[in-house]
Design a protein that fits this description.
It comes from Prolemur simus (Greater bamboo lemur). Part of the tectonic-like complex (also named B9 complex). The protein contains eight helices and 26 strands. The protein is mainly beta.
Length: 696
C-alpha cells in the first residue's frame, strides 16, 4: 500500500493543529501571499474535491505601492508572459507560476552592475474557482533585480587561472557572489562607490578582506610598525611584497586542471614493471600480459576502487559497499598468471545462503520467476613468497546466489595475506622480535577452552546490539574504544543483568597470558609469556538494598578497561624494538535504571557497555630527577621559554631523532671543515700570507 505524498501529509498536519481552518470542500491557497524574485514559485491549493476546479492568472495594476484587494478577474493581455501549471496530488493541487520568457527582461546593459531599482515589478493574482464560483486567491509580488545571480546566464568563457607562484589566485577572497556586491567587501569591483561608502568603516580585515600581500614577520620593513628584538636587523629579509609567502594561501595545486588523473594514466596507460629482477616491498604484482594484478580496495577517500593493484608484501582487509543495481562482477582469477615464474592461482569455492549478512535494504521482488545469478561476497587471497619471488597463490571465493533483479546494498570483503615459503601452518607473528605498530597483540589461553590468539574489541553493525556485533583484534600501539547495546526489560532481574554484562565483556579477554614479543612461541610458556592481571568483576549475585526498588540495579559492570604497559627493548639493525611489560584488565560499574517516558511501558530498554584499550609507554631508563636549580631557574627550560639554549646545536643533541648520531657527527665535522676553508681562503688571511711570504 503506497503512502500519501509529503504535501498531503504536511497540509493535513496543519489542519489538525488549527493553522488552516477551511471547511472541507472549500478552496484555500497555502500560502496566500508570495514574494517572487526568481523565475518560478509554487503554492498548494487545498481543494478537498479536485473536480470542476479552475485556476486562472491575471496581472494587477497597483498604484502608489499599495497592493490591490484581491478580486476575481479574468486573464489579461499582460499575463501572456506567465504560465500556470497545476499538478494534482490526492486532495491537494500544486500550482506553479513561471515566467515564460526566462529572465531576459533583466539583462542590463548598464555599466554599473549593481542596480538600485528592480527591472521587473508586477503583481500577479491567481484565482481558483469551482463551477464559475471564485473561492480562493493567491497574490504574488514579483520583484526582480538585474544584479541577481539568477538573471545571468553561465559564461562560456574559460576562466584563466593565474600562476600562484607570481600572483595570488584570489585577490579578493571576500567576493563570494558573482555579479553582485558583497557587503563589507571593500575590494569587490562589482560594488559601486555609493554602496562602498555605506560600509567603508566596516570592511573585512586581513587576507580575507583583500590584503593578500600583508607584511610578513621576517620582512625588514615590518620592524618599523611593531617592536622587534635587537638582533632583528641582522636576520631580517629584504624582499618586495610581490615575493610573499602568502602566494597560494587560498589555493594549493596545479595551474590548470588535467582531464585525466595521474593515477589512471599510471594504471592503464603505461604500467611500470618492476618484476624483472624480483619484487620489492610495495612493488605492484604483474601478470604475464604485462598488466597489474588487481583486487578491489578502498581508497583514501573511502570509495571502492574496483581495479586497484596489489602491492608486494602489503596485507589488507577491506570491505566494499556496492549497489546491486549497478554491480558488475569482475573477471575470474582462474585465467590469470602471475609474472614470477608463471604462477597460476589455485581457487576453491564456498557457497553461502545467509544473504541477510551481506545484503541490506533488500526489496521484495514481484517477479519471482526470473533467472538467478552468482555474486562473490568474500574473496581471500594468500600469496606464498620467498625472497623476491612469488611461489604460489591460494584463493578462496565465497559466493551467493541471488535473483537477477535483486535490489539492495551488498557488502563485499577482500583480504590479501602474504605468507613466507617456509612458514607452513605456523601462526602469523606480530614482529621479529619486537612488536610492530598495527599488528595484533598476541595472547594465549592455557585453560584450553578456546583457541583465541588475540584480544578483541566489538565492531558494531546495524542497531549496535551486542548480539549482532562482530569482533576485531586489538592492534599494538593503537588506543581504541568500542561498545555495544544490551537489550533490557523493565522487569529485568539484576543478577541476570550483571551476569549478562560480565559475559559480554569477558568475551573480549578470553586469555590468561600475553606475549612480551611479537614472535613468542605459542607452545613454550617460557618464551616471553606474561600472565595477565585480571581484576575481579563485582559480585553478580550480591544485591544491595536499593535493588528492591523497581527497575533499578546497582553495580552493573558497564566498562572494561585494558591497560597495556610497553617499552623499548633495544635496536635490531637500527630499528627500535618494542615489547609488552604487562597487561591489566579492570571492570567499572554503574547504577542502571529503566528509563521511562510519559508512562512506564513494558518495552525493551538499551543498556550500553563498552571497552577501552590504553597503551602506556614506560621509559627504558628512569629520567634523571630535576635539581633544585633546574626547578627554580627556568631560563634554560625549553618548555617554558621561547628561546631554548640547550637545543642551540639541535642536530647534535639527543633531542634530534631524524638520523643516527654518527651520521650527524660526520655531517657536522664536514660543515666545520668547509667553514674553516672559507675562513682561510678569505681576503684577510690571503693578505697575511702574502705579507709573511715577503718578510721571509
Amino acid at each position: 500500500m503506497a503512502s500519501p505524498p509529503p504535501a498531503a501529509l504536511f497540509l493535513g498536519l496543519l489542519l489538525l493543529q488549527g493553522d488552516l481552518r477551511p471547511l472541507w470542500g472549500d478552496l484555500v491557497f497555502v500560502p496566500s501571499f508570495i514574494r517572487m524574485s526568481g523565475p518560478a514559485v509554487s503554492a498548494f491549493l487545498v481543494v478537498g474535491d479536485t473536480e470542476n476546479v479552475t485556476v486562472t492568472l491575471a496581472v494587477l495594476r497597483d498604484e502608489a505601492g499599495v497592493l490591490p484587494v484581491p478580486t476575481c478577474v479574468g486573464p489579461t493581455t499582460e499575463a501572456e508572459n506567465w504560465s500556470v501549471t497545476v499538478t494534482p496530488s490526492a486532495d491537494v493541487l500544486e500550482v506553479t507560476v513561471r515566467l515564460m520568457n526566462g529572465l531576459e527582461w533583466c539583462s542590463s546593459n548598464e555599466t554599473d552592475s549593481v542596480s538600485e531599482s528592480p527591472c521587473l515589478l508586477q503583481t500577479l493574482l491567481v484565482s481558483a474557482s469551482r463551477s464559475s464560483s471564485c473561492l480562493a486567491h493567491l497574490l504574488i509580488q514579483v520583484e526582480m533585480y538585474a544584479n541577481s545571480s539568477l538573471t545571468r546566464n553561465a559564461s562560456e568563457n574559460v576562466t584563466v587561472i593565474p600562476n600562484q607562484v607570481y600572483q595570488p589566485l584570489g585577490p579578493c577572497p571576500c567576493n563570494l557572489t558573482a555579479g553582485a556586491c558583497d557587503v563589507r567587501c571593500c575590494c569587490d569591483q562589482e560594488c559601486s562607490s555609493e554602496l562602498t561608502e555605506l560600509f567603508r568603516r566596516s570592511c573585512f580585515p586581513g587576507v580575507f578582506g583583500g590584503d593578500v600581500n600583508p607584511l610578513f614577520d621576517q620582512l625588514c620593513s615590518a620592524g618599523r610598525t611593531r617592536p622587534v628584538p635587537e638582533w632583528f636587523p641582522l636576520l631580517c629579509v629584504q624582499s618586495s611584497l610581490a615575493n610573499t609567502p602568502f602566494l597560494g594561501y587560498f589555493y594549493h595545486g596545479s595551474v590548470s586542471p588535467r582531464q585525466d588523473s595521474s593515477f589512471e594514466g599510471y594504471l592503464h596507460i603505461d604500467p611500470k614493471d618492476f618484476s624483472d629482477f624480483g619484487y620489492k616491498q610495495g612493488d605492484p604484482i604483474m601478470t604475464v600480459d604485462k598488466a597489474y594484478f588487481t583486487i578491489p580496495q578502498v581508497s583514501l577517500a573511502g570509495q571502492c576502487v574496483q581495479k586497484a593493484p596489489v602491492a608486494f608484501l602489503q596485507n589488507f582487509d577491506v570491505k566494499c559497499i556496492t549497489d546491486l543495481e549497478i554491480h558488475q562482477e569482475q573477471d575470474g582469477v582462474l585465467d590469470v598468471k602471475i609474472k614470477s615464474g608463471i604462477v597460476t592461482p589455485e581457487v576453491i569455492y564456498e557457497a553461502r545462503t545467509d544473504l541477510d549478512k551481506f545484503i541490506t535494504n533488500a526489496e521484495i521482488l514481484l517477479n519471482n520467476g526470473s533467472a538467478s545469478k552468482r555474486v562473490n561476497v568474500e574473496e581471500h587471497y594468500i600469496f606464498i613468497w620467498n625472497n623476491k619471488t612469488i611461489h604460489g597463490i591460494n584463493v578462496k571465493i565465497i559466493w551467493a546466489e541471488i535473483n537477477a533483479h535483486q535490489k539492495g546494498i551488498m557488502t563485499q570483503r577482500f583480504t590479501v595475506k602474504f605468507l613466507g615459503y617456509n612458514s607452513g601452518n605456523e601462526e602469523e607473528t606480530s614482529g621479529n622480535p619486537g612488536y610492530q605498530l598495527g599488528k595484533p597483540v598476541r595472547v594465549l589461553n592455557t585453560n584450553g577452552m578456546n583457541n583465541d590468539t588475540t584480544f578483541h574489541l566489538w565492531q558494531s553493525a546495524g542497531r549496535g546490539l551486542c548480539t549482532s556485533a562482530t569482533f576485531r583484534p586489538i592492534l599494538f600501539g593503537e588506543n581504541a574504544l568500542s561498545g555495544c547495546l544490551l537489550e533490557v526489560g523493565i522487569n529485568e532481574n539484576c543478577t541476570q543483568l550483571r551476569e549478562k554484562a560480565v559475559e559480554r565483556l569477558g568475551s573480549l579477554i578470553k586469555a590468561t597470558h600475553v606475549a612480551m614479543r611479537g614472535n613468542s612461541n605459542y607452545s613454550d610458556l617460557g618464551d616471553g609469556w606474561l600472565e595477565i592481571i585480571h581484576v575481579d568483576a563485582p559480585d553478580t549475585g550480591a544485591d544491595l538494598p536499593v535493588s528492591s526498588m523497581n527497575s533499578i540495579c546497582p553495580d552493573v559492570p558497564a566498562q572494561l578497561h585494558i591497560r597495556i604497559l610497553i617499552s623499548d627493548a633495544g635496536l635490531v639493525e637500527g630499528i627500535t624494538q618494542q615489547e609488552i611489560l604487562g597487561v591489566e584488565t579492570r571492570f567499572s560499574s554503574v547504577h542502571w535504571q529503566y528509563q521511562c517516558g510519559l508512562a512506564c511501558e513494558n518495552k525493551t530498554d538499551l543498556f550500553p557497555i563498552g571497552a577501552s584499550v590504553q597503551f602506556i609507554k614506560v621509559p627504558a631508563q628512569l629520567p634523571r630527577p630535576l635539581t633544585r636549580f633546574q626547578i627554580n631557574f627556568t631560563e634554560y627550560d625549553c618548555n617554558r621559554n621561547e628561546v631554548c639554549w640547550p637545543q642551540l646545536l639541535y642536530p647534535l643533541t639527543q633531542y634530534y631523532q631524524g638520523e643516527p648520531y654518527p651520521q650527524r657527527v660526520a655531517k657536522g665535522l664536514l660543515l666545520v671543515l668547509c667553514l674553516m676553508l672559507a675562513v682561510l681562503l678569505s681576503n684577510p688571511w690571503i693578505r697575511m700570507f702574502q705579507a709573511w711570504s715577503l718578510t721571509s
